[in-house]
Amino acid sequence: PAASSYEAQEVLNLMEEEAAGAPSLSASISERDVRNLHKTLARMNFSNLIGLVTHQSPSRAKQTPESAEKLADALERLRGHFLQEQ
Questions:
Q1: Separation of alpha carbons 56 and 37, rounded Å
Q2: With contact defined as beta carbons under 8 Å apart, do 53 and 12 qualify?
Q3: Which of 32, 66, 71, 81 is the Cys-Cys partner for 4 at CB 3.0 to 4.6 Å?
């Protein structure tokens, strides 16, 4: 469990790095829509959020192949920890 916590934190840190350069949503959509998006994301479990991040449109310019590869590697290590526990 401690190792999987470390791996999960690594995944979250990589996602946070990706989000740091994203433009603010509040500048382009209404406050109501931002609240609704926040509620929707808050209801999603960890695996759903990971899927959302890793299966984004190929036209997304921010995520470089290197950052995508780092995230994929971290996810694979996290999966490996859970497979070992079974």
A1: 16
A2: no
A3: 81
**Which bin fits 54, alpha (ψ -120 to 50), beta or left (φ > 0)?**
alpha
CA proximity to 83, closest of 31, 54, 75: 75
**Residue 46 tokens, joined:** 């960890």
Q: Tokens 């808050």 identify what position?
A: 42
pLDDT 10s digit of each residue in the chain, 86 long? 566 788 888 888 888 887 777 777 667 888 898 889 889 989 988 878 777 777 765 555 555 677 778 888 888 888 887 777 65
* 3-state DSSP of the chain: CHHHHHHHHHHHHHHHHHHHCCCCHHHCCCHHHHHHHHHHHHHCCHHHHHHHHHCCCCCCCCCCHHHHHHHHHHHHHHHHHHHHHC
